[in-house]
């Protein structure tokens, strides 16, 4: 079976959760016997254009390429360069002739991508994994209102227009129709969480077209936690630093605990790329005010995350948006590390309060501080939460589930014929 895996970037250029999982699954497909090709779209932020071709090489194995997409309409999620990129995509499809196209995002690739596949290869099966809410929400797919960081429970042209007053209401009507029309060519959707599936059902996708398959993790050599007794409880944050990840909420909680006299250490692993000057100034101030209790460790390599998690007693993920299936929670649970996280979205599916971690109200520094204190002061609780960790599926298991789904689609096509 030939499989084309397409994502909106490459993990070596932008190591986000979607890109990492898409690439892991691509390799798992190959190990399962598939002839797989990885296509990652990028733009000037990570690569310069190379005149004469839309494609660029990446890696050393010859089975990964980049599509340079410099002309992309983010509102309609549309590929603008119809005379440049689209013919090259068509040529790639005709040359590789995949049996399956597995799409992981519409950004940079364009919402037209499934339609181009269907028009070029009518018998190709198209699967799309829904990783976030971009088709539903123009606010960077966050489903958070543009004022006061209020969580959004459902999109409509009126609500979306109230978030973006400068965009006419009828454009949101057209945006929704445009995206739903183009997505109608997808054979099957997959959601890593039941929560995200329900969001898309509420938006209008057919429930029977969306399967829930959890994201799997690569199998790695076991990481042995340090047996050296720590003089004080150590907490860890892992991931990019930005307002939606709850960075300032975390630092405000730490500041509160310091004022209360709690003896602890918080290690913050991650960088803050592409953030506003205001946000950078806020976290710089908070890091300065919470030092040395809070240690700013900076960016890390993905291959090091296991070792880093093994050095902490508890991981913290205080996101204030509807996270879908955070890799950090999976990584921590795979190492029997309890997690404190927000009680919304896919986070609440992965962590059950007082079972394998603690959940708190999002965007509430006092609630987060209270949970951190509980973990810090109660060693028995830490042990109980650790013993009930829920290990994620392996990436091989995820690949097998996807291939089973693809086989069903083939049966459906044969039956329909």
UniProtKB/TrEMBL annotation:
Residues 229-390 form the Glycosyl transferase family domain. Residues 15-216 form the Glycosyltransferase subfamily 4-like N-terminal domain. Gene3D superfamilies: Glycogen Phosphorylase B. InterPro entries: Glyco_trans_1, Glyco_trans_4-like_N, Glycosyltransferase_grp1. It comes from the Bacteria. Pfam families: Glyco_transf_4, Glycos_transf_1. This is Glycosyltransferase involved in cell wall biosynthesis.
